[in-house]
Amino acid sequence: MNIHLLSKHHSVINQYISQIRDKSLQTDAMRFRKNLERIGQLIAYEVSKTLIYRKKVINTPLGKADALTIATPIVICSILRAGLPLHQGILNIFDGAESAFISAKRIHKKGSEDIEIESNYTACPDLNGKILIVADTMIATGNSLVACLEHLKAYGSPKSLNIVSAIGSLEGVELLNEQLPKDAHLWIADIDPTLNAQKYIVPGLGDAGDLAFGEKL
């Protein structure tokens, strides 16, 4: 797997990461969502540099012009619910893309540290021959992402796979590196060193879904 760590470079994405981490700012849910959207946009721009383009002649009001357009259809898949703001940012850049949605819920086993991943909702177009971009805001253990990708196999074989994430743990990234194809790409804003006993990223930012959309029962 090809890992692209954006925090290594000086750019405004580091400013947005600092803001979504800051608990003094997290009470503003709209700002939290907007910063995730901005992170999605910035990462999508980086992804766009790696795509294949085709030449096209277009008609302007004053003549003809040569142009480059993306050659392969794109599908953006959001892992619900925390992936939605990130998804919107990616869609702002790839505005002609199709969208897919898949749920992933942690089930904690009583008396055990093991976690099962439950997925009971999927809406996805045909993926065959397309560029698949998966928006997963937080990559903790990496198990939910692997489970979702396994589920998406029923919808076809994409031409390429790109994972877009705001923050991941080193453990989660290492699992993806073991499980995903060598030609897959992980585009991630920042990577944190550890997970706590509840498998949350440390220092992380907390529960991204709750911060974006409110606490769940």
How many H/I helical runs?
Answer: 6
Straight-line distance between termini: 36 Å
Radius of gyration: 18 Å
Tell me the total number of β-strands: 14
**What spatial form do the alpha-carbon principal axes imply?**
globular
Q: Secondary-structure element sequence?
A: EHHEEEHEEEEEEHEHEEEH
Largest sheet: 8 strands, mixed
Task: State the share of residues found in helices, binned by percent.
Answer: 25-40%
Structural class: alpha/beta
Rounded mean pLDDT score: 93
- Poorly predicted tracts of residues: none
Strand-residue proportion = 25-35%
Please, could you describe this protein's structure?
The strands form four sheets. Strands 1, 4, 5, 8, 9, 10, 11 and 12 form an eight-stranded mixed β-sheet that branches. This protein has a two-stranded antiparallel ribbon with strand order 2-3. A two-stranded antiparallel ribbon has the order 6-7. Helix 2 crosses helix 3 (83-93). It contains six helices and 14 strands. It has helices at residues 13-21, 29-48, 83-93, 143-152, 170-179, 208-213, and strands spanning 2-5, 53-60, 63-70, 74-80, 98-103, 105-108, 115-118, 122-123, 131-135, 138-139, 160-169, 185-192, 194-195, 201-202. By secondary structure, it is an alpha/beta fold. 30% of the residues lie in helices and 33% in strands. The protein starts with a strand and ends with a helix. The longest helix has 20 residues, at 29-48. The model has no long low-confidence stretch (mean pLDDT 93).
